[in-house]
Amino acid sequence: MDYQKILENIYSEVLPLRGEGEQADYIPALAQVNPDQFGISLRLMDGRGFELGDSAVRFSIQSISKVFALSIAVSLVGENLWERMGKEPSGSSFNSLFQLELEKGIPRNPFVNAGALVLADIMLSRLEDPEGFFIDFVRTLAGNPGIDYNRNVAESELSTAYLNAAIVNLLKYHRNIDNDIRDVLRLYTYMCSVEMSCAELSDAFVCYARSNEPFSHGNVRLTKSQVKRINSIMQTCGFYDEAGEFSFLVGLPGKSGVGGGIAAIYPSRYSIAVWSPRLNSRGNSIMGMKALELFTTETSESIF
Ligand code: GLU
């Protein structure tokens, strides 16, 4: 299969969508990003890689970081994690307060903000230097020591994080947060601020695509079954309240972020990352989602 040619075809097919949608601007620093960028990067199990467009430009991974935080939390507390959160799709927005109130402080899943705030709480309780541990893990996964937090983006988000502050307060009220709420919110926000390119994300996610091998990267070790479960949560909960639509159109487990990135995998076959900042009303990249839909259609390589 000529993957480079396929990526080129996809690029020309998504170009007419350029200009549709808006980039996230509720985080002031993200409003400064040039919205008209598009990158895609593919990694195959045999080590071959294919890139196109702005695939080397780093962007804010935002909620894609939740996959890395979940991996760390699972490695730290194993099955006990599921006493503190569920594993069902939320069907409501990623920062919903009302669902958390109805469900008495138990987040629907690890990929809504409430769930990821609990993941941050676990890291704070178990790790001496959670911020250092997290970034070391991401650097090891992607094989690039240059990956880092963007403190500007993190502080910018913290300056307007009223809703996430409400979520962490509600969690604390329901005794689902052990640490100081400011520390939890800060760690969560810093994890979201990490910047990676599509190339680096596809390198990191190939580790999840290798789900038939034990996962051992830096200080994080997961069993094959734990990786399978992380991948299955990506499938059911990875795309906000559009996880069903993404599954319907694309048919791959993955995770999106409001920075406009999407990383997805086909276990034992490939990982793919795409980025374009303009989002649809659910918070997913318009060109990114379309590109992945075209990719699995043109290659006939989706998990279904
Ligand atoms: N830091 C963002 C927030 O909490 C992440 C949102 C996302 O990418 O889904 O609002």
| Biggest sheet details | 5 strands, antiparallel
Question: Which stretches are poorly predicted, pLDDT < 50 over at least 5 residues?
Answer: none
- What's the rounded overall pLDDT mean? 96
- Distinct helical segment count: 12
Which series of helices and strands comes N to C? Answer: HEEEHHHHHHHEHEEHHEEEH
* Helix and strand composition category: alpha+beta
Number of strands: 9
The first-to-last residue Cα distance is 19 Å
Shape: globular
Portion in beta strands: 5-15%
Helix content: 40-55%
Counting copies of identical and different chains, the oligomeric state is single chain
The value of Rg in angstroms is 18 Å
Question: Strands of the largest sheet, in order across it?
Answer: 2-1-9-8-7
Ligand identities:
glutamic acid
Note down, in words, how this protein is organized.
This protein has 304 residues and is α+β, with helices and mostly antiparallel strands. The protein is 45% helix and 12% strand. The protein has twelve helices and nine strands. The chain has helices at residues 3-14, 65-77, 98-102, 113-126, 130-142, 151-158, 162-173, 181-192, 198-209, 224-237, 243-249, 286-299; strands at 39-44, 49-53, 59-60, 195-196, 215-217, 220-222, 254-256, 261-266, 270-275. Strands 2-1-9-8-7 form a five-stranded antiparallel beta sheet. Strand 8 (261-266) and strand 9 (270-275) form a beta hairpin. Helix 4 (113-126) crosses helix 7, helix 4 (113-126) crosses helix 8 (181-192) and helix 7 packs across helix 8. The longest helix is centred in the middle third of the chain and has 14 residues, at 113-126. It is globular and about 55 Å long. The two termini are 19 Å apart. The structure holds glutamic acid (GLU). Glutamic acid is lined by residues 62-63, 94-95, 113, 157, 164, 192, 257-258, 283.
